[in-house]
Amino acid sequence: MKKHLVVVLFFMGVSSSAQINLAPYKLTLTSDLAFASVQEELDQINLSFHAQEWPLEVLKYVLIRLQQNPYISDGISIQVTLVNTAKTRTTTLKVPVSAFYIKAFRTEEGFNAHYYDFLNETYEWMLEYL
Q: Which of 93, 101, 84 is nearest to 25 (CA)?
């Protein structure tokens, strides 16, 4: 009887210590330039400079989610919602994060070797589908 009680208490302790965040992967960013007219070359340049912040925010979000849930191993998709400051216009992009980057970001060496590639791919992907 004591063995069963010890086993039950052990599993209760293990299950309560593992905090897994199963909420959907959603990130909201505020940007007026994402909804502005990009007909001139200067507008395109302004948007591209402004959009360089977005992959960095996605990277920060991915790293936080990996810390919250160490069991993520497959690729995930993050729903990035761009909202203007008046919150009257929104657009949503599904940004893929491959399993390759998730595995690489588990170690400091992997992060240092691949974070630039991640930022570059995410930046190009977001601008293409915006």
A: 93
Three-state secondary structure call for residue 32: coil
Cα–Cα distance between 120 and 72 in angstroms, integer? 22
Distance CA 6, CA 10 (A): 6
**Mean pLDDT confidence for 23-28:** 87
The continuous run of DSSP H or E covering 80 comes out as strand 76-83
User: What pTM does this model have?
Assistant: 0.77
Q: How far, in Å, CA of 49 to CA of 33, rounded?
A: 10
CA dihedral 26, 72, 127, 125 (to 10 degrees): -150
